[in-house]
Amino acid sequence: MTEVDCIIVGGGPAGLSAALVLARARRRVVIVDGNRPRNRATYMSHGFITRDGTPPMQLRELGRQDLEQYPDVEFRWGEVDAITGEDGDFVATVRGVRGGPSGQVRARKVLLATGVLERLPEVPDLLTYYGSTVFSCVHCDGWERREQSLVVIGENPELINTAKRASQWAEREVVLTNGSGVADGGARASLAKRDIEVIDTPIAHLHGEQGRLSAVELSDGTVIEATGGFVQPEWSLPQVVLDLVPTAGDLGGVKTDEYGRSSVPGVYAAGDIRGITPSQLIIAAGEGSRAAIGLNNDLIFARF
Ligand SMILES: Cc1cc2nc3c(=O)[nH]c(=O)nc-3n(C[C@H](O)[C@H](O)[C@H](O)COP(=O)(O)OP(=O)(O)OC[C@H]3O[C@@H](n4cnc5c(N)ncnc54)[C@H](O)[C@@H]3O)c2cc1C
Question: Residues 43-60: pLDDT tens digits?
Answer without folding.
Answer: 899 999 999 999 999 999
